[in-house]
Amino acid sequence: MALTPWHKSATPRVDLRKGKPLDAAEFAVNLDRVRDGKAPDDYKDPKQFFERTYLTKNLTALAAEVQRRFSGIKTETSAVFNMATQFGGGKTHALTLLYHLARNGPAANGWPGVDKILAKAGLNSVPGAAIAVFVGTEFDSITGKGGGASGEPLRKTPWGEIAFQLSGTQGFDLVEEHDRQRIAPGGDVIRSFLPKDRPCLILMDELMNYVSRNRDSGLSDQLYNFIQNLTNVASGEDKVVLVVSIPGSQMEMNEADFSDYNSFKKIMDKHGKAVMISAEAETSQIIRRRLFEWSPEEISPDGTILLGNEAKKTCKAYATWVKAHRNQVPGWFPVDHAEEMFEAAYPFHPMVLSVFETKWQALPRFQRTRGILRLLALWVSKVYQESYTDAHSDALIGLGTAPLEDPIFRAAIFEQLGEDRLEGSVTTDIAGRKEAHAVRLDNEASSAIKKARLHRKVATVILFASNGGQTHGTEATLPEIRLAVAEPDLDIGNIETVLDALSVNCYYLEAYGTSYRFGLQIQLPKIHADRKASVPKQEIDECLRDAIFRVFNEGNIIKPVFFPENSSDIPDTPALTLIVLSPDHRRPDSRTIELIESMTKDHGASSRTYKSALIWSLVDNDASLTSEARNALAWEKIHFESEQLHLNERQNREVNEKIGKAKRDLKEAVWRSYKNLALLGKDNRIYLMDLGLIHSSAARTIVDLYLLQLKQKDIITSSISPNFLVKNWPPAFSIWSTRSVRDAFFASPLYPRLLNQQAVKEAISKGVSNGILAYFGQSEEGEYDPIYYRTDLLPDDVEISEEWFIAKEPPKRSGPCTIVVTPEQISIKPGDEVQFSAKVMNDRGQEVQTDAIDWKATGGSIDQLGLFRAGDIEGTYSVNAAARDATGSASVVISAGGRSLKRIVVSPQDAHIGPGRTQTFVAVGLDADGLEMPLAGVDWRATGGTIDVNGIFQAGMEEGFFTITASAEGVSSSSNLIVKALSPHWAGEIPHQKWTQFYNRILSKFAARKGLKLLVAVDISDASMEEVEEMRSALRELGLEDDVEVD
Question: CATH number of the domain at 814-898, out of 2.60.40.10, 3.30.530.20, 1.20.120.790, 3.40.50.300?
């Protein structure tokens, strides 16, 4: 059944239709502003004011009684009235009504509702009256009013102000001294300034504000005396009415305020009549008149609104639904009079007004009439606009339609509830953000629930009906929720469905059986479950990566390699290397084992040398890791959103504790999961180890635990003995380079893996000290020097390289060396200089490197670089060089006689180099006797390349025969040069004792060049099949073909 939308039967006032922002001032009139003509039109325009004022029974009675008093009728009238309603209950509105009537007198007779007042008063016309208005929030006793350019006397007290308003300057003159001394006048003085020719109305509003501000000056006590005297005077006069509104907001009073409030209230209770402006049953009529526009035909003679046929049809439909479900709605609701209830509240649902008039009355900050009007004005304005923009066609304005998505409306709600921290609850669970839970659930729901916006409506009803969780024991019951949101065409079973979804998804919703409430305390388990379910896989992977890194990086005994994707990601170095596979690579998966085998044997495009150095760590499965990572991330997300979720201190502390525990649990999950090790076995196959159930208390770090387990199985060792080296000496080697010794422990699974290379140095050190091993160096010329044997040798003095060796016995040293000095003979003049050079040669004719040459000479002086300077005495002298227990000499002839250069010798005479390479040429000058003489300014020339002044020739890329020429003092000499690439070939048999020397002295210098090829033919006699298999295995380890032929 299609019902007419509410906005087509009840038209909001124009400013609400236009969506103009309304603040609390719209419904909180300032009486001083009305008197000055500066109030909004709804209050300063008396006719408009009466059009929008519903004359409640009490307001009508008050106005009528005041008019009777003005007319001199004392029966059933009071001279003093105490406006004792709740804060925001319409007190100032009533004062304004009395003001307009008194000020306009008979001119008010035709205003809407005035006839009702006159009828109640038994009068034919409104009598005018002199008026005095005092508003405590406005009057300032320091600056006062009037004075100066205004031409008015300066008034600084309430009695001075009231006397001036009632009787002008003459009236003020009567209390001028009282005003100056700040002393309240007595009854006689008060009577003297009251007008004698007309009635008198004194309106006093917001007294507590003035009292609180002027307590220290003593004026508050004088005001008390003044009001006491004024009430006595008014009670004794015929046509004087005093109406006083005492209270401010009691929430804002201090102890002194309460004391003064009680004092003033006692005076008013003793002399005055307490007035309650409206009863609960009249609230709907007040709201209708203030918020909607009605034609005169729609207002009954008693001021109530007359509904049209479509509105009545709607009310009847809702009432019929209530009667059909009488057992499912609250027992307090008058089901048999449901139609009257809906008509009385239209266009609102009765539950809207019921919540304000019953449950919200318990809230300290709730302003009864003003608060309701303020909220409903914003409400009506917003839902009116939504009725067009969102195509909503609600037949009534129900609790569930509250525009909580509007921040201005939310702020107004929170102000009345006295708790702005509800912002987080509302925007998270109901509305205000597009991801709010109720909004999201509606979007995901079935078409019927989505169209009805049922999740949002139910959640909104719970918020209002549970007072925002601000009063204890106030929950929204299931019957109340049904009554508030159900519509004639709605499947009532959907309400329970919606409640179940909200209970699971909303963070701030608390359920107590079939009662519900929204509060400030976020339900952590709910939000954690929600966050946990929405953690993306990418974040889980990143979290696991970080957790695994932290666990394996503790201690740094071995630097791990994490999650390699290619074999080249794993270094090929002689050091124990732990490889941690990602959780995606699980032990039961055969592809994981294949990956380990491939990366163990290969390093990029080459074969891996140090296969035995690799230790792999892998998981059985990643379920536990994923679960713990998801758990930790969910708590961290809650911590990150703590301000947005409005967590309190206790909850923040709980979240931090949960994060700490989640991190610990994740660490333990890493330990439990990475319990599998893989490494190369002695059979060159991957060997798997399951360490069982492990945990972080088993060792300082997980790497320590691995090493402990591997040590127990003799797979890893931290030390080796010299005897181990002797026992496992390669039979092909007579001497063993220290580098090869070290490499053997990381290249072959037949050797235990070394935890540290220092173990090799320590073994050699012990072996040398005990005479088990000899340790020595070998120069490029093959000389063994120095040699350490049966002597103390510190481990740190042992060098791991290809130039240092060990042997079971110390090697023999080479024979004595000689020194060749050049030039061997030379003739120079006194004072001339000549540069000598020296080479240390061993007994095999090979040059031996030495640190320094010790030079000595006769007939002149020589420095330690070999530069000789001749003396002045002619003769034949010698130059001597000494180094490494060897000596050498040259002859120097010092002669002043004239000598001339006869011949130049260029060496080498015949040279052969490759394209682009360099060759150094030397030019030596000889005299007629064949003695060498110094050359000055040699001019070098060359073909096939370039040559510098020092005789260094740089060959071009062209091959051929070329000439090098040296010239000096008109004498020239040449040398021949062939530029051609050299490709040496050699084939021969090498005794096993010289295999290492062959490599060091011949092959090592070419090893880095691309053109070196080494073809090996191996012939072994008397080998066992076991040795053949070992040979094949070793070849495979080196990445070589294992095709070994056996005869």
Answer: 2.60.40.10
- Give the Cα separation of 793 and 806 in Å (integer): 13
pLDDT at 87: 43
Residue ranges of the chain with pLDDT lower than 50? 24-25, 86-88, 469
Q: What CATH architecture is 900-982?
A: Sandwich (2.60)
pTM: 0.52
Contacts of 223 (CB under 8 A, 6+ apart): 158, 184, 207, 210, 211, 214
Mean pLDDT for all residues in the chain: 86
Answer yes or no: CATH 3.30.70 is held by domain 57-136+200-277: no
Residue 897, number of CB atoms within 10 A of its CB: 7
Share of the chain above pLDDT 90, in %: 43
Query: Where are the chain's structural domains?
Result: 57-136+200-277, 305-521, 537-712, 716-806, 814-898, 900-982, 994-1037
Tell me if 814-898 shares its fold with 900-982: yes
Three-state DSSP class for residue 999: helix
The b-or-e profile of 583-614 (16+ CB within 10 A means b, else e) is bebbbeeeebbebbeebbbbbeeeebbbbbbb
Strand order across the 735-737 sheet: 735-737, 804-807, 774-778, 784-788
Q: HSE-up of 892 (CA within 13 Å, CB side)?
A: 32
> Closest Cα partner for 73 from 194, 242, 238, 240?
238
Residues 6+ apart with CB under 8 A from 997: 778, 782
Q: Do residues 208 and 256 lie in contact, with contact meaning Cβ atoms separated by under 8 Å?
A: no
The pLDDT of residue 840: 86
The pLDDT value recorded for residue 521 is 77
Tens digit of pLDDT for each residue in 761-791?
A: 999 999 999 999 999 988 765 678 889 999 9
Which residue is associated with the tokens 């005035």? 114
pLDDT in tens, 89-131: 578 888 999 999 999 999 999 999 999 999 999 999 999 999 9
Dist. CA 766–CA 125, nearest whole Å = 129
Quote the tokens at residue 299. 């207002």
Which residue reads 């000899």 in tokens? 774
The per-residue pLDDT for 390 is: 64
The angle that helices 219-236 and 255-271 make with each other, rounded to 10 degrees, is: 10
Pair 560, 578: CB distance under 8 Å: yes
pLDDT reported for residue 782: 66
